[in-house]
Task: inverse folding
């Protein structure tokens, strides 16, 4: 299931990244619904370079979701950082879903523009979905990491006990005491 969720996330981020690259190259389809407005004026005017960087960031988010879904991150030197990035992305998308209380998010004031309608219907729910999925992927990796560590600790403890037992059997003092205890008479001596 984690792999399926990761593939869905990769598909979403790949699509969104490609749309941003399309816009950075001069495409205009859907751009009127992608930028927040106040009184018919856009609140920002990102250039081609910024839009391309956003597309690159979205593709990177897809790569992070892939790593969280398909790799055993404990076996890599960068694994804990990928898990931290997953937690961070979960927080970022949750904050985006909540919004700035003006023009984006569930709690926005401006609700009648084209962007606001799309934001309410699609963008904010998508951000909430992405936050939840990144949380699940990160939690899955972190709990897998912790369970492996606790299992390794238990195995190490048992190995130490086994090693100690083997060493005790080879210890002449242990052997003498143990043998003496085995040779101890089974009957209690009588007082007569």
Result:
């Amino acid at each position: 299931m984690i792999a399926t969720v990761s593939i869905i996330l990769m598909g979403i981020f790949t699509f969104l990244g490609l749309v941003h690259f399309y816009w950075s190259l001069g495409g205009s389809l859907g751009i009127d619904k992608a930028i927040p407005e106040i009184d018919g004026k856009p609140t920002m005017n990102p250039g081609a370079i910024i839009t391309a960087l956003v597309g690159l960031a979205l593709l990177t988010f897809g790569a992070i979701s892939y790593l969280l879904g398909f790799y055993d991150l404990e076996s890599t030197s960068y694994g804990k950082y990928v898990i931290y990035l997953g937690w961070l992305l979960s927080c970022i998308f949750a904050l985006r879903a909540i919004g700035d209380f003006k023009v984006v998010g569930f709690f926005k004031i401006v609700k009648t523009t084209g962007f606001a309608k799309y934001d309410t219907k699609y963008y904010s729910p998508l951000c909430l979905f992405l936050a939840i999925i990144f949380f699940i992927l990160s939690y899955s990796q972190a709990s897998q990491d912790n369970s492996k560590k606790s299992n390794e600790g238990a195995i190490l403890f048992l190995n130490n006990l086994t090693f100690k037992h083997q060493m005790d059997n080879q210890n002449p003092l242990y052997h003498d005491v143990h043998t003496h205890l085995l040779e101890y008479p089974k009957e209690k001596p009588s007082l007569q």
